Amino acid sequence: MFNSFFIYLIILTVLVTIARTPVFKGFIGELIVNVLSTLMLDKKAYTLIRNVTLPTDDGSTQIDHVIISKYGIFVVETKNMKGWIFGGERQATWTQVIFKTKTKFQNPLRQNYKHVKTLEGLLGLPADCFHSVIVFMGNCKFKTPMPANVVFPLEYIGYVKSKLIHRLEDEQVEQVVQAIELGRFDRSLKTHVDHARHVKKVVAEKQQANRCPKCGSPLVVRIVKKGPNAGSQFLGCSGFPRCRYTTPVDNI
């Protein structure tokens, strides 16, 4: 009996550990959007393609969900996070706050912009045929005003259905679906692993670029407190005041 209890305890511990990983949280977030899309969007009007990995000039990009309809192509990025979320449409990075811990992450609108541009290049369609949508889930709360296309799950379907202008003919919808299926990498473990390696390489390069060229310390986002540029962001050396290097956010 003791051995059985010990085995169950190990299994439970492993499951809890897995449930806390970013990969698992991302999977759950994507699953929720998949379920909402499948159950609440008319299959005759909307075609869902999930987990689309497309080739790019520097490797690959992975799109969580693409929804094709006569109302346009919805490019959906999911974020499963907790805590307070601070950010603005034009800011390079947003901030997650959990108690006293602050964590910077890439503005998801910028991340999804690359997805949209990649699809534009593949399909040869104008920009007004695409709708970028960011879906946040988990125990998180926006602490700054967000654009209309940054939503929670309960708002997601409503946002998609709010787009009523016809962008594509029925024949074009079918052509888009076929083009994406033909242009994507195979949905396989190898594709996932190759893309993960690419992302890891990009992150490492950005981390290296995000270091002070004078002393090598990490650069951190700071806010101008006075003067005509008050409220704007810049990157400053974390070694301040020993090192006073600064650079605009867009330079990184």
Q: What can you see in these coordinates?
A:
The chain contains six helices and twelve strands. Strands 1-2-3-7-9 form a five-stranded mixed sheet, with helices on both faces. The chain has 252 residues and is of the alpha/beta class. The relative contact order is 0.12.
Topology summary:
Layout: H1 2-19, H2 22-40, E1 46-56, E2 59-69, E3 72-80, E4 83-86, E5 93-98, E6 101-106, H3 108-123, E7 130-137, E8 140-142, E9 150-151, H4 153-161, H5 170-183, H6 189-209, E10 219-223, E11 233-237, E12 246-248
Brief overview:
This protein has 252 residues and is of the alpha/beta class. It contains six helices and twelve strands.
Descriptive labels:
252 residues; alpha/beta; four-stranded mixed beta sheet; 6 helices; elongated
Please compute the radius of gyration using only Cα atoms.
21 Å
Helix percentage range: 25-40%
Succession of helices and strands: HHEEEEEEHEEEHHHEEE
Strand order of the largest sheet: 1-2-3-7-9
Low-confidence stretches: none
Class of secondary structure makeup: alpha/beta
Q: How confident overall, as mean pLDDT?
A: 82
What overall form do the CA principal axes indicate? Answer: elongated
Q: How large is the count of helical segments? A: 6
- How much beta, percentage-wise? 25-35%
Largest sheet: 5 strands, mixed
Total number of beta strands: 12
Straight-line distance between termini:
58 Å
